[in-house]
Amino acid sequence: MENYNNLDRYSNILEAFELSIELTATLKAEYRKTARLLAEALAKNRQFRTPEAIDAFDFENLDDRKKKFDSLSEFESSQAEYDMAESHYSNALQDLAELIKHKILESAEDARVFACIAVVTHFTEKRKINISLIIGMIARFLELKFLPSLRMDSREVEMRQLAELAHHHIYELEFEIVPGGSNNVQIYSRTLSSPEDRANFELLPLSKICRLDYPHISSGQWAIMQTANHCLIRIFKNTH
Fold first, then answer.
1. CB neighbourhood size of 24 (10 A)
2. 55 CB contacts (<8 Å, ≥6 apart)?
3. Distances (CA, A) of 12 to 183, 196, 216
4. What local confidence, expressed as pLDDT, does residue 94 receive?
5. How far is it, in rounded angstroms, from Cα 128 to Cα 193?
6. pLDDT of residue 2
7. Domain locations in the chain?
C-alpha cells in the first residue's frame, strides 16, 4: 500500500497534468470471512461452544460429519465417498458460519458491528491476531453471548480502543457506506479533500486501519502518475 507521502506526491503530479482525482480513506469489514474463522474454531474446539451456541445449533450433527470426513483418506477411499463426506461436512460448517454471521450482525447497531469487524479484519489480514483474540474481542465488544468471553489479551485492549474510535469517527468524520456492499463484506469511505485534511487524518489512530487510495482512477491516469513519479526520482538522484 502507498504511504501518505507518496500519495501526496501523486496528487501533485495529477494537478500538474490538470487531472483531479479524489484520495479516499476506506474501512473494510469482512463479515463472512470472520464468521467462517469462528465457525472453524467452534467446530474444532468444543471449549469455544457456549450454552447459547449449543442451544442454537446442532453441533452433534456437525461433529458426526466432521468425524466421518476426518476418518476418510483421499487416497484410500473412493472419490465419490470422499467427496460426499467433504460436502456434508462443508455444508454443516457453512450453516454454522451463516448462523454466526447473523448473530454478529444482529448483536448491535450497524456502525458498531462494522467498527468491530473492521478492526478484526485489519488485524487478520496483517496476521497479527489469533482465534482466541478474535473470539474474545467480538464477544466483549458486541456483548455477544453466542461466543465465550475468553481471558482478555493485552492486544485486545488496543483493538477495543481502535473499534471504539472507528465507531465514533464513522459519524464524526462522516464516513459513508460504499454502494454494493452486503452482509458478507461492507466498506465505509471518506474523501480526503485537501492536504490539510489528509494531514489531520494521519494524526488519528483510525488511520492505522484505513486504506488510502484513488478508487476511481483510470489505468491511463495511473500510468501518468507512475511515469511522472519515476522521473521525479531520477531527477532527485541526479541532483543529490
1. 17
2. none
3. 38, 14, 17
4. 98
5. 31
6. 46
7. 29-187
The CB density around residue 195, as the number of other CB atoms within 10 Å, is: 12
30-42 tens-digit pLDDT: 999 999 999 999 9
126 vs 41: CA distance, rounded Å: 19
Comparing C-alpha atoms, which of 198, 206, 49, 46 is closest to residue 114?
206
In the block, residue with C-alpha cell 442454537: 56
Task: Return the pLDDT at 240.
Answer: 61
CA-to-CA distance for 11 and 33, rounded, in angstroms? 34
Alpha-carbon distances, residue 144 vs 94, 116, 139, 149 (angstroms): 20, 12, 5, 9
Task: Tell me what pLDDT residue 1 has.
Answer: 41
Give the residues of the chain that fall short of pLDDT 70. 1-21, 74-75, 216, 221-222, 225, 228-229, 232-233, 235-237, 239-240
- 94/40 Cα distance (integer angstroms): 9
Count of Cβ atoms closer than 10 Å to residue 77 Cβ = 14
Q: Counting beta carbons within 10 angstroms of the beta carbon of residue 156, is it exposed (0 to 12), middle (13 to 18) or buried (19 or more)?
A: buried
Element (H, E) at 24: strand 23-30
